[in-house]
Amino acid sequence: MPLVDIPLFPLSAVLFPGGPLNLRIFERRYLDLVRDCARDGSGFGVCLILAGREAGDPAVPAAIGTLARITDFCTLPDGLLGISAEGGERFQVATTRVRDNGLVHGEVRFWPDEPGVEVPPEHGLLATILERLLDQVGGAAAKVDRARYDDASWVGFRLAEMLPLAQPEKQLLLQMTDPVQRLEQLQHYMPRFQRG
């Protein structure tokens, strides 16, 4: 896979493939990023911050991230730009550099999509839990085709973004390349959410 240069947006959160992302844009470097992405239809990379903060000096991003594609714009009540985006392909960052405006760019290698794997019977409860969570929350994900609940990758990614896990745990789940292994890890986390 060849290296591709993309702008990076380090965040204090993990974006999963197919997942929603809403951002409030106010720094000049990110306004530039949004303008460029809107102009040429490109995406930007979202990586969990390992050191630093979202605003101010450039933060140190995790080596594995997710491409985000902007799906909508709005003006927020405070007058700032709001964007909605959706997670796409995952990638690994080979090198980074900081441009004059403080925007971090990465030379990244995109990962192939995971193979389609059915949710194994021993993890069927995870699909049921996800369906109940989505019924409560509503939104676009709650209206998906019932067949999605048989897709191990989709179930794993949706549960990983919905459960109140620590960001390093979410990053671990993002970095896994085996959808069944991700479900096993989620199964390992589940006891902490059971009511005593």
Radius of gyration: 17 Å
What number of domains? 2
How many beta-strand runs?
A: 7
* Highest-level CATH class of the largest domain: Mainly Beta
The percent range for strand residues is 25-35%
Shape: globular
Folded structure, characterized:
This is Lon N-terminal domain-containing protein. It comes from Dokdonella fugitiva. This protein is α+β, with helices and mostly antiparallel strands and 196 residues long. It has two domains: 4-110, Roll (Archaeosine Trna-guanine Transglycosylase, Chain: A, domain 4); 121-193, LON domain-like fold, CATH 1.10.4060. Helices cover 30% and strands 31% of the residues. The chain contains five helices and seven strands, in the order ββαβββββαααα. The protein has helices at 28-40, 124-137, 152-162, 167-175, 179-189; strands at 4-11, 20-25, 44-51, 60-61, 64-75, 81-98, 104-110. It has a five-stranded mixed beta barrel with strand order 1-3-5-6-7. β3 and β4 (60-61) form a beta hairpin. α2 crosses α3 and α3 (152-162) packs parallel to α5. The radius of gyration is 17 Å and the shape is globular. The relative contact order is 0.18.
Key attributes of the depicted protein:
196 residues, alpha+beta, Archaeosine Trna-guanine Transglycosylase, Chain: A, domain 4, LON domain-like fold, five-stranded mixed β-barrel, Lon N-terminal domain-containing protein
